Amino acid sequence: MSLNDLFTEIILDHYQHPHNHGLIPNPTYSSRGFNESCGDDVQVSVLIKNGIIADARFSGAGCSISQASASIMTDLVKGKSIEEAKKLASRFYDMVKGTEGEYGEEMGDAISLQGVAKFPVRVKCATLGWHTLEEAFAKNDGPNSSEETK
Amino acid sequence: MRSDIKNDFPIFANWREKGKPLIYLDSAATTQKPARVIDAVSEYYSRYNANVHRGTYELSQLATDLYENSRTAVARFINAERAESIVFTRNATESLNLIAYAWGLNNLKKGDEVILSDMEHHSNLVPWHIISRHTGAVLKFIRMNSDFQLDLQSLKDNIGPRTKVVSVVHVSNVLGTINPVKEICRLAHEAGAIAIVDGAQSAPHMPVDVREIGCDFYALSGHKMCGPTGIGALYARYELLERMEPFLGGGEMINEVFPTTSNYAKPPYKFEAGTPNIAGAVGLKAAVEYLEAVGLKEVEEHEIALGDYAARRLAEIEGVRIFRPKTTGTGVVSFTVENVHPHDISTILDSEGVAIRAGHHCAQPLMRKLQVQSTARASFYIYNDKSDVEVLASALEKGIALFRPRKKADVTK
Ligand SMILES: Cc1ncc(COP(=O)(O)O)c(C=O)c1O
Question: What are the helix (H) ranges across B112-209?
Answer without folding.
Answer: 126-135, 152-158, 181-190
